[in-house]
UniProtKB/TrEMBL annotation:
Keywords: Disulfide bond, Endonuclease, Glycoprotein, Hydrolase, Lyase, Membrane, Nuclease, Secreted, Signal, Transmembrane, Transmembrane helix. Its main location: secreted. The chain crosses the membrane at residues 75-99. It holds the Pfam family Ribonuclease_T2. It comes from the Eukaryota. Residues 1-22 form the signal peptide. Belongs to the RNase T2 family. One of its GO terms (cellular component) is extracellular region. It comes from Solanum chacoense (Chaco potato). InterPro entries: Ribonuclease_T2_eukaryotic, RNase_T2-like, RNase_T2-like_sf, RNase_T2_His_AS_1. The lineage of its organism: Eukaryota, Viridiplantae, Streptophyta, Embryophyta, Tracheophyta. This is S11 protein. Gene3D superfamilies: Ribonuclease T2-like (3.90.730.10).
Length: 245
């Protein structure tokens, strides 16, 4: 009797701890339209004519988006220097460590390349972007810090890449005759994106200009299902929105 009471108490304690775990109830994948971003910012890369990741933002109902949830979080730079680990820690079998470091090297290299392709740091040149990783670091500390209990740095970035891979928004828009170089109503863009998300996306416009800037797609915390996004209300819903070429 006492034992089962203890067990159930323990259960309740663990359960309530796990619910404070993530402390977020959805994830917003924010995709940027580079021509609009580069029109407003000084870009150092060839402007890609396709959507790129801005960030993956944990969110929960409330007046403001979550941010900087874990102030002491550190960002580990993606690099290809894991061979150093091999030479320093030859404690296990040499072959095992060699294979492990080759594998880690391969993974890190792949992550760096995938991020550089799908999460382009537009404001700096490619070499500095791969080395200094300012946008990735900024996003991770600001937003990745709010889903730490579920996603570590590697799983956070892989999840963002995996979620982005599920949508080809440029193609979706094109199917609905929405192409760069012309203007469309908010509803036209919203409805076109919604055909693939089923749930309300967040269509964002450039501050002070009627340009299509970003599209947010929202998911449940595990990324398995889509949910409605918080609406940023940055677009003029009565006029036209320019899809910059
Ligand atoms: C745009 O990106 C998507 C996936 O992110 C890709 O499948 C598609 O081929 C790209 N389109 C162009 C025109 O590059």
């Amino acid at each position: 009797m006492f034992k089962s009471l203890l067990t159930s108490t323990l259960f309740i304690v663990l359960f309530s701890l796990s619910s404070t775990y993530g402390d977020f109830d959805k994830l917003q994948l924010v995709l940027t339209w580079p021509p609009s971003f580069c029109h407003a910012n000084n870009c150092q890369r060839i402007v890609p004519k396709n959507f790129t990741i801005h960030g993956l933002w944990p969110d929960k109902e409330g007046p403001q988006l979550l941010k900087y949830c874990k102030p002491k979080l550190t960002y580990n730079y993606f690099s290809v220097s894991s061979f150093i680990i091999f030479f320093r820690t030859g404690s296990f079998s040499v072959l095992f460590n060699l294979l492990k470091s080759l594998f880690l090297n391969f993974l890190q290299d792949k992550m760096l390349n995938d991020l550089d392709k799908h999460w382009i740091q537009l404001k700096i040149d490619q070499a500095s972007a791969r080395k200094d990783q300012p946008a990735w670091k900024y996003q991770y500390l600001k937003h990745g810090s709010c889903c730490q209990k579920i996603y570590n740095q590697n799983t956070y970035f892989s999840l963002a890449l995996r979620l982005k891979d599920r949508f080809d928004l440029l193609r979706t828009l094109q199917i609905h005759r929405i192409v760069p170089g012309s203007s469309y109503t908010f509803e036209e863009i919203f409805d076109a994106v919604k055909t693939v998300t089923q749930m309300d996306p967040d269509i964002k416009c450039t501050e002070g200009a009627p340009n299509l800037y970003e599209i947010g797609i929202c998911f449940t915390p595990n990324g398995d299902s889509l949910v409605r996004c918080r609406q940023s209300e940055t677009c003029d819903k009565t006029g036209k929105i320019f899809f910059r070429p």
